[in-house]
Amino acid sequence: MSTHRFLTEPHTVAIVGCPFSGGQPRPGVDKGPIHLVNAGLVDQLKSLGWAVEFAGHHLFEDISVQGDPPVGIVKRPRLVSGVTSAVSQIIGGHAAQGRLPLTIGGDHSLALGTILGTFGKYPNACLIWIDAHADINTATTTDSGNLHGMPVSLLLGLPGNESIEDTYFSWLTQPGVGITNGEHNKPTKRPVLTPAQLVYIGLRDVDAGERAILRQNGIKAFSMHEVDKFGIGKVMEMALDHVNPNRDLPIHLSFDVDALDPSVAPSTGTPVRGGLTFREGHYICEAIHETGLLVGLDIMEVNPSLEDEGSVQQTVKVGCSLARAALGETLL
Ligand SMILES: [Mn+2]
Known about the structure:
This protein has 332 residues and is an alpha/beta fold. 35% of the residues lie in helices and 15% in strands.
């Protein structure tokens, strides 16, 4: 196995199964992690030379929410907050031990917890977000009110989330930097992430409000247009040059399987045609592995209740092979 600059020996991947679907409306996405593990993910990663820790899925049954009416249009803020805050603790614990947390979802609102978990240990890390969507709506711009379309705006602390931020997501702050404001003695919140730490690849279904947010904040994004224009090899180089110019910063890779073309990964909640090919998706993971800088990995939005049995098996298999590619599987 190649080197992993930030992980302790023996290299250990902690699989964190999060069967959670509260950030979006469709049932079934919570079955994704169960299918990925049943497909043999643990043994597959062991065969790549990793020590694998997997202690069952996190069902979050202790997080009970007595009534969870929407706040404005935003749905289930209490449940999503409770679950993702618990996820951040779990991921943070693994990161602190020098393990590589691999979170399998579940819907992409889970990234609220996974990103805070790894960025708590590695505040200077970068985030590479692979997705058909930007997931950067705010409580003000969202049309659907589904929190799986909003995690990035909350992680960046963008304006527009005032209605939910202080009440439900006050925990979503860079830990260890609680600066006290001398005048009012009020702790100042610092966003988990800055726009310069983030890069997108695979976008092709971006809402008007999200486009404005990307532009106003100078967030780097390689849409499918750039993938077509430059090829995935060059796009990965440019993406890393942007967030990790000296190739010395930790990397969190958050991979939504809907970034892949629906012909490659059909069983997902919000498929959009014109996506990444099988090889382009795997190349992204392989290129990240080659850096030796990976410290956190999410494989999200596998939904086995959508489409026929063959499509489900195909999507689950792709989810497993993306994880293997990010953890060192090569073609030769
Ligand atoms: Mn997503």
